[in-house]
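Before a computer can learn anything about folding, someone has to put a protein's shape into writing. The three-dimensional part falls to structure tokens, numbers that each stand for a local backbone shape. The protein below has been through that process, and both of its lines are reproduced in full.
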Amino acid sequence: MNYGYVRAAAATPELRAADCAFNSEVIIETLKAAGGYGAEIIIFPELCVTGYTCGDLFLQESLLADAADALGLIAEATAGLNLLTVIGLPYTVYGKLFNCAAVIYEGRVLGLAPKTYLPNYAEFYEMRHFSPAPEPERACLVKTPAGSAPFGSALRFQFDDLPEMILSIEICEDLWAVIPPSSYHVQAGATVIANLSASNEITGKDDYRRALVSGQSASGICAYIYACAGEDESTTDLVFGAHNIIAENGRILAESARFENGVTYMDIDVRYLIGERRKNTTFRHNMDHYVTVAVNRPGYESKIHKNLLRRVDPSPFVPSDPALRSKRCEEILTLQALGLKKRLKHLKMENVTLGVSGGLDSTLALLVCAKAFDLLDLPHSGIHCITMPCFGTTGRTFENAKKLSRLVGGTLYEIPIAAAVNQHFADIGHNPEIHDLTYENSQARERTQVLMDISSQVHGLVVGTGDLSELALGFATYNGDHMSMYGVNASVPKTLIRYLIAYVADTCGSKNLADVLYKILDTPVSPELLPPEDGAITQKTENILGPYETHDFFLYYMMRLGFPPEKILLLAKIAFEGKYTENRLRAWLIVFYKRFFANQFKRSCLPDGPKVGSVALSPRGDWRMPSDASVETWLKNILNK
């Protein structure tokens, strides 16, 4: 099974200026080692066969002849490696000298791509020796030491067994141009851009280079492999840093330490890139003038997925870097509060009602209400905190709910609902000893009725507390906690809510508030609808559904990236290795898909709520699907039927 992963390498080998025989030997050693490591693409620096710093020696026929001979030797050495190799060399075509990238595979030169933009300023004087690439539509066939090959800048190299893997090339200065050639390449279908570079080092240039590479990979929704000349180039005037970078859609996946020759490896995901382009309606295609060269890999079976180099984060919604996480938490809380602020301002309301249970979701909603009221310069007494103990309420959560409400400064209501629910059981003829869905849902709907009616009394807005994870799994009572007038947590996943609450605890400046917030964080997630045992919570949501961290993981890769279940399971095995077995992950993944498809009807009538991240389930914005769609295609994929 090929999941779309391609192992890429950016290499800076040892080099001697103008010694093609030595350089070709080192290149061959490097590519053989890379092939043994499982690399499928390897990119070498600009003019690496000769060295970039040869100066006027580029006009010497002897050097050019040696470079051509070296090309033949390198091509011959690629036989049997299953490694698409891209090297830089000077090459003469119809009497003109070009700064070229030669693309080689299994003993053959598949194509020659010339550099488009030749720098001729400051320390650079390439136009003294080279000609710029001809117009894209003028691609032609040229003879090489390893077979005839197309020559031109508008070339695409496509794996026959993985058609999403389409490689195109630009060389060094091309990336610095106002409109880099790669901008055209990606519109012509390229998912991977190779850049053969000889960018010298000066103070601060590495940051600019890094920004260019990550930015171009983002705007092109592509992978970008950048291989740079290193320390063995001539230092007559310049120093080169071997700064190799592999980026993917705006994110740098791997980067070498500067001033150290070597090879940087990373697994890129071309099917992910295709999925991102598929969703992006402003990504335009223009195939004019491009020549597609097939990279035939008969019988090749990728095994990269069995030992992926890229890290798979078990918590994709939560930044692992503490500083970034704090920044993200503050931003999300602000977005939630601004959404509520606008709604209250529009409705000319100065009151909200919300159920406060002592659990994670209602805690976050209450904190958001407090922030929104601060933005509106309204007294917190207009936050009507209603705690409604019933059959499953424990003393721990009840006390935490009351403490939190008082510390925030809200108006606290204690309204036991057991009598009202028992009356309802009598009205509908339900035996209260039968602890079924009727028993549970009656409590949730009674609570919603109380919230709605008190909101009418105080001329307020009912703030919903349900989160993104619950919406995905349908773990909400229809027309119970499912319903509100504005759902501030609607696009916040459960795994992130913990960090948002912890962030407030750490930054609020109140020890009493921090203490109660951490007590809430230590409480098991539960709807508390079934009676406790010895005062302790018995109904633990994660014992019913599986861990929320796995469901949030599934949700991210299913919705945000559109991955099929088998690929999600593969990534989950990597992310949760040593914590959960494959069988448990598979079982929870089945639960996830069954519940996700079965509960679309609840999401189709979702109340308004602010979008704060890239994954959201609003039927008006991010997610539209039929409520009666079949899940069978996804279940077959999981079960390998």
The longest strand covers residues 84-93. Residues 322-639 form a domain with the Rossmann fold fold (CATH 3.40.50.620). The chain has a mean pLDDT of 94.
